[in-house]
Amino acid sequence: MSTGFKVLSLTDRAADRIKAIMAEADRPIAGLRVGVRNGGCAGMSYTMEYAEAVKPGEDVVEDRGVRVFVDPKAVLFLLGTEMDFTTNKLASQFVFNNPNQTSACGCGESVAITPVDADRMPARA
Fold it and tell me: pTM (2 decimals)?
């Protein structure tokens, strides 16, 4: 499925890290599946997993040589998000720069996200 909107984009660092992880996988991987789930002290958390194939209803984002499959339940929460990969002295991690995120917990494991109002989205291409 394609909404005609760019749900998610990747930085060069995120794309490079995803390519490296996929190259080390022990089975064929078609891409990375991204979504959100309820949980954590702020209410939601991001999910990522290997994807062997696209599932019905998923948006497929191809950016910087990487395929990302977006869970249809997550599209309105992720619309306009940039996925990055950061490294500092204590951690290396994927970071979601999400314009729909309204707050985050102190530990950084969960976030509060307000979904995009579907009635305010432009018509699909």
Answer: 0.79
